[in-house]
Write a structure and sequence with these properties.
The protein is of the alpha/beta class and about 210 residues long. It has a single domain, classed as P-loop containing nucleotide triphosphate hydrolases (Rossmann fold), CATH 3.40.50. It is about 55% helix and about 10% strand. Strands 2-3-1-4-5 form a 5-stranded parallel β-sheet, with helices on both faces. Bound molecules: cytidine-5'-monophosphate.
Length: about 210
């Protein structure tokens, strides 16, 4: 069983994916972390972020078992990740690893930007989780201030919009719902309500 979950930044797909994986006893891969791991490795090695061959080598070396959200969550890493994510050679290397992960029995939940459209177009359940840019910026802002970071709401909103634009307008694997994806708009929905909506779609496919 494969559950493919796509959507823009801060739409709630991470939380939803983890809940679904726990509920069904499936493995979970946040594919954003794979792009973030490549970006971080390049930055740490002092390598440029705009050289596709170099980035491809780093992408081939990414270890999915060693992805640690706590060292990859920095804002600058997310920004760098969305820059290297426009490179086809980087995407191909990471998609290969993601597809292998998706085949792990008894099932897997993968979340990202292109899971239903490119990585696992054969997935029996595809969800597109979204919310307005304002609601997503508010969530990000609240998350940051709750962990003691200083943040400016308008800056966070501008950032979310810039990231959306880069992810939706890139030529290779742009963010968009698969034609057969179920849409879940979490703008005015609790996590619990989103989980129940998703569960209905998964149960129908089991
Ligand atoms: O979801 P997260 O913010 O961690 O993703 C970081 C960046 O990685 C995204 O902005 C996007 O550019 C890229 N990404 C992608 N395809 C995926 C997952 C993430 O291009 N499947």
């Amino acid at each position: 069983m494969i559950i493919a979950i796509d959507g823009p930044a801060a739409a709630g797909k991470g939380t939803l994916s983890r809940r679904l994986a726990a509920h069904y006893g499936f493995h979970h891969l946040d594919t954003g972390l794979t792009y973030r791991a490549v970006a971080r490795a390049l930055i740490e090695a002092g390598q440029p972020l705009d050289d596709e061959r170099t980035a491809e080598g780093f992408a081939e070396a990414v270890d999915l078992a060693g992805l640690d959200r706590s060292v990859l969550s920095a804002h600058a890493i997310g920004e760098a990740a969305s820059r290297i994510a426009v490179m086809p050679a980087v995407r191909q290397a990471l998609v290969r690893a993601q597809r292998r992960f998706a085949e792990t029995p008894p099932g897997a939940v993968l979340d990202g930007r292109d899971i239903g459209t490119v990585v696992c177009p054969q997935a029996p359940v595809k969800l597109y989780v979204t919310a307005s840019a304002e609601v997503r910026a508010r969530r990000r802002f609240d998350e940051m201030t709750a962990t003691g970071q200083t943040a400016d709401f308008l800056e966070v909103l501008a950032d979310i919009r810039k990231r959306d634009q880069r992810d939706m307008e890139r030529a290779d694997s742009p963010l968009r719902p698969a034609p057969d994806a179920h849409l879940i708009d979490t703008s005015e929905m609790s996590i619990e309500a989103a989980f129940l909506a998703a569960k209905t779609f998964v149960d129908a496919a089991l």
